[in-house]
Amino acid sequence: MKNFLVYISIAISFIYCDTVYRVPINGTIDLGLPPFIKRTIAEAELNKIDAIIFDINTFGGRVDAATQIKDAILSSEITTIAFINRRAISAGALISLSCEKIFMTGGALIGAATAVDMSGKKGSEKVISFMREEMASTAEKRGRNKAIARGMVDEELTFSKLFIEGDSINVNDIEGRKDGKLISLTTDQALKYKIADGESEDVNLVLNSLGYENVTIIDKGENWSEDIVRFLTNPVVASLLTTFGFLGILFELQSPGWGIPGFVGLTCLILSLSASYIAQLATMSDMLFIFAGVGMIFLEILVIPGFGIIGISGFGLMIYGLYLLLLPDIPVGEEIVGQAMDGFFIGLLGAIIGLFLLIRIMIKTKFWEQLTAPNIQNKTDGYENSFGWETLEGKEGVTDTDLHPSGWVKVGDEKIFVVSQGEFLGKGTNIIVVSVDGNRVVVKKLIK
After folding, report:
1. Contact residues for 304 (Cβ-Cβ < 8 A; gap 6+)
2. Are strands 19-29 and 51-61 parallel, antiparallel or unpaired?
3. Which of 143, 157, 292, 433 is the residue whose CA sits 20 to 30 A from 423?
4. What is the number of other CB atoms lying within 10 angstroms of the CB of residue 237?
5. pTM (2 d.p.)
């Protein structure tokens, strides 16, 4: 009986013990991170997890990614804790401020959240204003000092006193209170000015101090689909997808019908678009531009003969939509705009160069020779004015490709290159050979 009661007590303690998710935010904050954070928060809410502790050690990253994470944390019903494990710089500071509680290890740092480009140049006033008030509003939501939050972004702000929890405090130990200096707080300073709630070197001690005893910590990581999104949104991979997407479409426009290059190009563009949409980089307007452009190109290839204003307009719309796809839907600095422009032109230029080289290589192969001119005459055989196709005049056949107005047809066992009388004839159309002049074979649609 005694053993039975022991087992019951163990089972009850297991059922009612606190469960906490530990979520790492390390390295560069990129666009692949928000989907992982959102999924984890949604899962925690569904499973009624007691708290989520974010293990943060980052020098920052993309502001748009940090903003998405901040919004997800602020809207969460789960208790959120930021455990700053050495540093939360720039975008990491915004994520930390969005949590209900902040704990820092000894010698940790939080702040320096101004927007700069790769060369360290300060962002435009529009970008600085956005980030400054984003930090201030987040700090206000969590009951933290807005002046300090603003000073982490804008070095032009100055102050000598702060009002914290109703008390006026003279500030003389924060270097960033001076004009021209950004605010970064050490652990002691963050505790003094109520930015942080405690100091600890261990996650378990943090949870114990907050009343989470007998806690079960579950480490959360990215799943395979989130890893794929992070891979596809990598600037290098995104540029390659754009390159092969353009390359496939451009090569398809050079050949009649729709084949493998078109499918490859379309697949690359779909992968790029899907990853950007999941990462909230693509807006509905961006997608409408791209879909409209692709639709017009399909219309030109499959319906309208030749390649004219519809195809060119569609290609232009698709290019514009793909460029917009690289820009987030929030104010960004010159760094992000520059990355978008570089990635876009690398993709376009790479596609054009790749198309040129591919054509140069292919036209030297026997496969291309057989494909485009299977009955080509050799110089050693002498030249003739005719391929002997005069006997085909008046015979019926069927188009093997679209005629724009030229293309391939089958007449009996012969596959020959022909031209129509100026009309567009789709693949599979019944035709009749109208005339043969040397190697020029003219056909028209057969009307029965």
Report:
1. 310, 311, 424
2. parallel
3. 292
4. 15
5. 0.59
User: Cα–Cα distance between 42 and 54 in angstroms, integer?
Assistant: 15
CA distance 434 to 418: 11
> For the domain 374-445, what is the CATH superfamily, name and number?
Nucleic acid-binding proteins (2.40.50.140)
Q: Kindly list the domain boundaries of the chain, sorted by start residue.
A: 2-222, 225-362, 374-445
The CATH H-level superfamily of 2-222 is 2-enoyl-CoA Hydratase; Chain A, domain 1 (3.90.226.10)
Taking the C-alpha atoms of residue 180 and residue 95, their distance in angstroms, rounded to an integer, is: 24
Work out the number of other CB atoms within 10 angstroms of the CB of residue 51.
Answer: 23
Residue with tokens 């796809």: 325
**Residue 108 phi, psi (nearest 5):** -85, 175
Residues with pLDDT less than 70, the chain: 1-17, 115-124, 163, 165-170, 175-180, 225-226, 230, 233-236, 238-240, 242-243, 246-247, 249-262, 272-287, 289-291, 297-298, 300-308, 311-312, 315, 319, 321-388
Per the listing, tokens 């989470």 go with 212
